[in-house]
Amino acid sequence: MSFHAAQFKRLERAGYNRIGPRYLAAAGARGELADALLMVAGLAPGQRVLDLASGPGLLARDAQALTGDAGLVVASDISEGQLACCPDLARVAADGEALPFADKSFDRVLCGLGLMFFPDDQAALREVHRVLRPDGMLALSVWGRAEEVPLVETALACMRRLLPPPKVARPSIFRFGDREELARRLASADCCASEIRTVRLTACFADAAAYWQGFLDLAGGAAESLSRLPAEKQQALAAAVVEELAPHAAPDGYRLTSSVLVATARPV
Length: 268
Known about the structure:
The chain is about 40% helix and about 25% strand. By secondary structure, the chain is of the alpha/beta class.
């Protein structure tokens, strides 16, 4: 069976709609990543900013504080359920591969941990290029290599161990974790990478149950797929993940440090 992009997007949308406010609560622990992204974005009062794959608008809200009353920040996401968490922001439910905005509309486009979820990343980057002003800039973050992101890979490894291989493989969320590959993908969409840096994110969990629930609260399409499994299989996964978590044991539970690439790029 071949990969079907539209079906993948429906699953992701359903998953993030299902998570709803739980994602908002869990994503708050990633504040240091938002700070790193905003630091390189160079936001200033009066700018027009698009936050792509905005989720519940955490990054967009911080950007609005920096651009002020004279600026405009638009939160955009494929999930209406996520955008419902930020009713105080300008928001548009949209597919990032076909944005409903005019050419050269924004001074900045932000995309925090989102590019990996676009089946056609080149279409998404071309849309970013189209809506950016000539002197504008894209600031984005992506997960590093799988072995450098135990926050996610631990759960995925458990799923691979206990579940049969999927009939259709999902695009890997680690596919831009190599600096050279990320720079190449940006360049192929006429976006020149100005800087790529690594940021470390440390997450702590009291026990395996807290880790597994944290994964489910952020996993979107994967969480949606897991929710469709029989209850006993879901419970088995939640219990079995302790094996993958063992290397990350700490005196007070588990401590997982992951790598995120933060990049800026300008249209050429």
